[in-house]
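From the methods appendix. Each design record in this collection lists the tokenized structure first, followed by the designed amino acid sequence. Records were kept in a plain field format so they could be parsed without special tools. The example shown here is representative of the layout used throughout.

RECORD:
FOLD TOKENS (655 positions):
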């Protein structure tokens, strides 16, 4: 496979397709970090676009649109991290890239422009207004802090003016490695409130004098798995631990009256992808309540009022939103759908007024759009569809939910995308999601790498959600613990058998791919089953022993494998693809980012080595400037093109 793939037909096809979907040159194709006020004329959001070309990557800018629709307005020219509207709806706080590489900028906007701005050393990851609107808290990651897997899974580098030959020095010490809370009253410069050895992953005001935080005593990405709920005095910075969870925490939100803290507690695998139980800590009693949320695995929460929590999450094939009333101890559902989903990485929604909500909705064949839910009905406020998107999508088939029985009788769910007019078995690509505590959803096709193009060429794409996936409750997610690559692998292969039995999939032309956990599984499954004609692991784990010793998240494999990385046997050996892959001769394309520290590049090298020693064709693709899961551009497009080429060569279509 050529190093420069840009002149290949597959690369041209990929560029043409994504160019139609994403419209480089300034078109806003997606949004996140939504906010608005019930009496305001506008909704604000961070708009995503390719300001120039696909090769130059995505830009994120502050945008707004009228509440009743109209043109999208881009309001700034800085890379924008976060936005948050003040409680009275009058002032917008904007976190964006600063003038110096190692310093971000916090801005206050009133009307159409920035009225005040200050620099903060590091990368701003979260901002929140105090309930009285008098002060901001800012969570700042140091210039060398680890990034979560969903943000690239690498350690940021401190800028150096020295010669290029100077070595990279890694150490456990240095202020630039930690995440800290800063506060700003809009007058003098922001003040740092917390200091090492306290590392703050997330924070939120709890009343106007206290801050609720998810914190740990170490700064490494893996220490997040052992984080706890703390209260930080907003004046002194004094810290009190109030809840030490059995699993992981995310999405902390303090009540405006300071009486309680809402958060999500769950068994999970990735920071930023927490999905599970709505939990409420009562500051008076010191107890944690986990109310019923109507079967919804909660992924996003916001306080609608001092006594009502708005939540969003997944329930089977559905995405759903609702409210929990603390005074009445009852949850009510406000919207649910299997035809649409919402949110960027996980389902998310922003409350508006007494009962409404705002989110970015999408489906496989419908581009993202800004949606408002009022009285249970959804209305489109603004579409992010590119002018040529509908035509490009018209050739890419339709998605439908599917269910089947695993060998042990457990119902497993997923999604299938079939080509238009398919009447006989087609080649099948199995795409396994990351995590494992995550899930495939009914998402827009631009988020599926090469899959939509393959469907337009006559392939069926299978998106299984094996045990360990979200949306099926705590027990279903926890079932993967200590058995990763066991029953979950059988869930996937039994789903393949079900599609073959339906006459949808050709049993001689089946390929498997995936990233992260999906990369591990797409390296593992061909060593355990003879079903696969090709494998394309992306950011995989090949050897759990070396993964533990080189990853930024060694705590992950200890939790998931429930075994010892120091023992000569056990799951660290028996579930390592590289120790078994040599037994199966399957053409294998392995891809990874050189910056990745979630699954370091050596894991891809081990998978490639084992494939070669099996006698199979194998190519190893390493992108020097990419991180975990190869989500950056133009690497994302190049990897999609290489998938098309590999499958075209080794899983030859008959038509």
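DESIGN:
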């Amino acid at each position: 496979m050529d190093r420069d793939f840009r002149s290949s037909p597959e690369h041209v096809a990929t560029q043409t397709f994504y160019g139609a979907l994403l419209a480089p040159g300034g078109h806003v194709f997606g949004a996140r970090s939504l906010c608005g006020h019930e009496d305001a004329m506008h909704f604000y959001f961070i708009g995503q676009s390719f300001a120039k070309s696909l090769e130059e990557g995505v830009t994120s800018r502050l945008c707004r649109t009228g509440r009743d629709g109209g043109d999208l307005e881009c309001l700034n020219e800085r890379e924008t991290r976060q936005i948050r509207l003040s409680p009275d709806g009058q002032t917008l706080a904007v976190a964006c890239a600063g003038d110096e590489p190692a310093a971000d900028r916090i801005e206050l906007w009133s009307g159409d422009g920035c009225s005040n701005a200050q620099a903060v050393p590091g990368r701003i990851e979260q901002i929140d207004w105090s309930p009285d609107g008098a002060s901001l808290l800012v969570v700042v990651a140091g210039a060398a802090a680890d990034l979560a897997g969903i943000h690239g899974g690498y350690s940021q580098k401190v800028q150096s003016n020295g010669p290029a030959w100077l070595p990279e020095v890694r150490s456990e010490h240095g202020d630039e490695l930690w995440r800290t809370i800063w506060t700003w009253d809009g007058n003098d410069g922001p003040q740092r409130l917390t200091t090492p050895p306290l590392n703050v992953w997330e924070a939120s005001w709890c009343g106007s004098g206290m801050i609720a935080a998810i914190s740990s005593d170490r700064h490494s990405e893996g220490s997040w798995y052992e984080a706890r709920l703390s209260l930080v005095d907003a004046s002194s910075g004094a810290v009190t631990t109030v809840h030490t969870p059995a699993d992981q925490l995310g999405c902390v939100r303090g009540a405006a009256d300071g009486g309680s803290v809402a958060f999500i507690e769950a068994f999970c695998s990735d920071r930023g992808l927490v999905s599970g139980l709505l939990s409420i800590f009562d500051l008076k009693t010191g107890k944690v309540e986990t109310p019923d949320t109507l079967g919804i695995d909660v992924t996003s929460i916001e306080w609608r009022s001092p006594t009502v929590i708005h939540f969003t999450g997944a329930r089977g094939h559905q995405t759903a939103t609702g409210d929990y009333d603390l005074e009445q101890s009852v949850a009510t559902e406000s919207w649910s759908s299997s035809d649409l989903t919402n949110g960027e990485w996980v389902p998310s929604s922003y409350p508006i007024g007494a009962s409404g909500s705002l989110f970015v909705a999408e489906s496989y064949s419908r581009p993202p759009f800004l949606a408002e839910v009022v009285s249970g009905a959804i209305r489109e406020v603004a579409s992010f569809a590119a002018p040529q998107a509908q035509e490009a999508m018209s050739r890419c088939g339709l998605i439908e939910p599917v269910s089947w029985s695993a060998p042990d009788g457990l119902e497993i769910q997923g999604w299938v995308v079939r080509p238009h007019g398919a009447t006989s078995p087609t080649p099948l690509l199995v795409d396994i999601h990351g995590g494992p505590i995550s899930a495939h959803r009914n998402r827009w096709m631009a988020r599926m790498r090469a899959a939509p193009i393959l469907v337009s060429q006559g392939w069926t794409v299978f998106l299984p959600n094996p045990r360990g996936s979200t949306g099926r409750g705590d027990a279903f997610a926890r079932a993967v613990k200590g058995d990763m690559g066991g029953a979950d692998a059988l869930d996937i292969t039994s789903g393949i058998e079900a599609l073959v039995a339906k006459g949808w999939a050709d049993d001689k032309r089946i390929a498997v791919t995936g990233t992260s956990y999906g990369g591990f599984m797409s390296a593992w499954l061909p060593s355990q089953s003879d079903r696969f004609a090709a494998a394309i692991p992306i950011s995989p784990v090949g050897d759990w022993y070396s993964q533990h010793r080189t990853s930024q998240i060694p705590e992950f494999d200890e939790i998931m494998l429930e075994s010892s990385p120091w023992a000569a046997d056990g799951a660290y050996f028996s579930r390592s693809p590289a120790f078994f892959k040599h037994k199966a001769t399957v053409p294998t394309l392995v891809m990874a980012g050189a910056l990745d520290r979630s699954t370091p590049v050596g894991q891809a090298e081990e998978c490639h080595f084992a494939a070669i020693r099996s006698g199979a064709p194998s190519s190893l693709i390493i992108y020097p400037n990419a991180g975990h899961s190869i989500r950056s551009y133009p690497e994302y497009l190049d990897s999609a093109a290489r998938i098309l080429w590999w499958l075209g060569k080794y899983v030859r279509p008959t038509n």
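APPENDIX NOTE: The chain has a mean pLDDT of 95.
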